């Protein structure tokens, strides 16, 4: 198992208490492809932050790749995140003043990849997403779909065990969204474990498993 959530809860206390996640159980095996859907405020971002080791549950346990993460201090959690989890966001998060290749190489800033290997691995990731012809371009000159594919190259070039995507097609037109979803299908076929948060049912249908969140509770839909 890559992900095991055991009765995970996350409460926020700001005057009143909000239970953003409530006794959530979830298992993700290596190679799974999961979509998470739900209305605004249901707990999707909270779930992604917990899965990505950006936030901690207030109850329950999260095992990542068999490791109980509640026992890890912040430094170890960051190291695990950097080595094992890739992120893709709706708004791409590319640096406009850097080239495509340089943006992908930002993934290695906190990692342990030897300097000499970095260009090769970034170039290989750009080849994987079909953008070798854009290596020296700046993000501002690319289409939305190309920008998202750069962000995906940056997320996968470190060889993560899990890729987390938050509304990855939210800023894309249908054709560009399709190219990104096609790429996700290919990455998953190559064995990458994927979790995609989306409002879009057509996008969620691409995943092999689909869960809905409502008021912090998770329900898996039969396929
Ligand atoms: N840092 C925080 N402090 C207080 N409450 C929070 C915090 N983060 C989230 N919440 C609350 O937890 C609940 C779940 O929020 P979350 O952002 O996970 O929902 P979401 O499904 O991602 O919504 P959206 O689709 O609008 O992004 C909401 O009631 C929200 O107000």
From TrEMBL:
Instruction: Offer an example of a GO molecular function term for this protein.
Output: ATP binding
Every copy of the ABC transporter domain together lies at: 3-222
Matches recorded under InterPro entries: AAA+_ATPase, ABC_transporter-like_ATP-bd, ABC_transporter-like_CS, ABC_transpr_LolD-like, MacB-like_ATP-bd, P-loop_NTPase
Please tell me whether the keyword RNA-binding is annotated for this protein. no
Print the keywords alphabetically: ATP-binding, Nucleotide-binding, Transport
> What's the domain of life for this entry?
Bacteria
The residues forming a coiled coil are none
Matching PROSITE patterns:
ABC_TRANSPORTER_1 (PS00211), ABC_TRANSPORTER_2 (PS50893)
Keyword Nucleotide-binding carried by entry: yes
**Where is the secretion signal located?**
none
Specify the protein name: ABC transporter ATP-binding protein
